[in-house]
# Entry
Amino acid sequence: MRHIPTVDDLAADPVTHHYDDMIAPSGLTNLLGTVRVDHDLTALTAVTFPPVSQGLTRTAASFVDGRLVESYGAPITHEWRPDRVRRSVSLPGLDLATVTVCAPGEAGVAIDVAATNTGDAARTVAVTLSLAAGAARSAEAWLDAVAPEERNRAAAGPDRLVFRNGAGTAWSVQGVDTDAEVRLSGIAPSAGEHEVGIGGIERGGEITVSLDVAPGATARFGYVHAVGATEAEAAQAFERIAADVPGAVAGAEAFWDHQLEAAFTPGNTEFSGHLPVLETASEPLRRLYWWGVLGTIWFRRDFPGNVLGRSYDTLMPNYWATTTFIWDYSLSSLTHALLDPAVMRRQVEHWIASDIHTHFGTSSLTGGPVGRWYSVNDYAMTRLVHDYLRFTGDTALLDASPGGRTVTEHLRDWARAWQDLRGGSPLADYGEIDNLLECVSSYTHEVASLNAANVWNLRTVAEILTARGDADGAAALDAEADALVKEVADLYVSGSGHFAARQPDGTRVPVRHVYDFSVVGTTIAGDLDEATRREMTAFFERELRTDVWLRSLSPWDPDASFSPRPDHQWNGAYPAWPADAARSLVALGEPQAALDWVPGLARSANQGPPGQAHFTEEAMPAVNGGARKAPPQLPYIIDWACSSAGAYVALVIESFFGVDPKVGSADLGTAGACVAGLDPDAVLRGLRVGDRLVDVHADGSVVDAG
# Structure
């Protein structure tokens, strides 16, 4: 039994679909850039390698014998792995298969195309790729969800089309690795701008490869799409990849196997830390853990010009490229602290030096702010610093002064920031839906989740001050927390298992949302009486949990009709919500309920890394037993992968194995371990806590690693 995964272990289930079925197009990355792999046999969208972007421009749609492949009505099968996507289709007398990769170390994508003659006679197969580009290079941060693109003009070469933007600052070179017929489109450039869906995509031209294939034989060619800030840069990348497309495919597999091995290896050369190896006989537990690890690594970005040197993006491959959201990063906080603590510290200090009350994230192109304020930011930043401190032991961070004030001072500010948000009540008012969950209209103003988080912030900073020897400062914060928690409890709707959101006029609006369940449970469970804890878990089991996923909002909530977005509504959930809900179950005293859910949740880890949202089973049929990823088109606007995947690592380490180190203490706090209820012989090997490397067993015992 392997304890460190390979790309084969993380392969998604094959998915077969017709034209534009409700299947989210998958993504690939080589940690320099990203690409979306479309439903078609060869089509690509959003070939994005910062600083060059192409928005959602689609290219390389395929025609066989002059007919668009999508129009044949034949189902196309997609098989995703971290290193590649294999697409295949059977047409009359012909099987076609392609393998798409992001070429390691290059700003480019390669597709190996193979055609097999299943007929009785030799034939010549004409494969045509319709090519387009929208290469752009913005001098500013990419401040919209979709990365910049602009109109390109194409020039023909012997085996390629060369695209450039108007200023000559962004280039796309697309072509093949064999003899081909290259044609410009012959369509006059349009007079004005147009939008996809209204005017379509302005194609630059076509490339046709003719393959002579004997009966039962297979012929191949390679397609390459490279980008650059100069023509020479893009052309040289094209030449390197096109020289050996099968080698690029093999290289992608080796590259990703190496990344996965490094992530679990102390002293590796890829990350500044590592994650513990999970040894378990429970395949579902192992699958969830690996899902969380992959879904965090997946967002590492090392492109030239990254102002932080390295960052971790939040979404891909459609939206918010080069943006790191504070909220999402904090949901994978423990994972970052173990896997790449040096990068985490640099990112956290960068945010501290900014004004976290004015934006939701940061651009890795400029270091500048992106977006509006999210109400979670004070909680998210406290959690980030706390996890970094307790797992690295690097308390020197507290004396650092990003932005001119020490981190300790910032922690005090975050712990008390809620006081400036009070209106006529003792609780903080967190504003309207754009600052909170965006698609739940009733979840506004005085919400239970973030007010409970304020209690946790106060106590967590008090713990840190205690470790620093500031007993008086810690006592003051603890006293404020004890007073505040009573006010939070007042939002509970007696007997219901859920909470109300208090409006500025004092009206209490009941809201049956998982975010209250998760945050209240993981922050102040010990302050709730037994009856409330019991009612909360009963509500969760009755109205939110499904077999393989959860409903963010109860379908019995009046606001369930407000929005179709599945990340926070009745029809699905954001990827961290199941993990955090399971952590809440453990904290509320129902660990077995969380453990019993693991096999179902693990079935949803069958479509690549966690998506920005998965549908519940009643909203959309499952894919081979797993909750279906929601697609990017309207009205869902959901991306294929999201960096909060690290929440599943935290679920395993912190909740199931009970690892809860305190700042300034050598005790790992594993008394709450419950994983024995799933696998009594499970072990976390090589967990780093401060200067120690330890093995943690299912019974909570801790042994120094040899």
Notes: The radius of gyration is 26 Å. The first strand starts at residue 15 and ends at 17. Residues 210 and 610 are 39 Å apart (CA to CA). The chain has a mean pLDDT of 95.
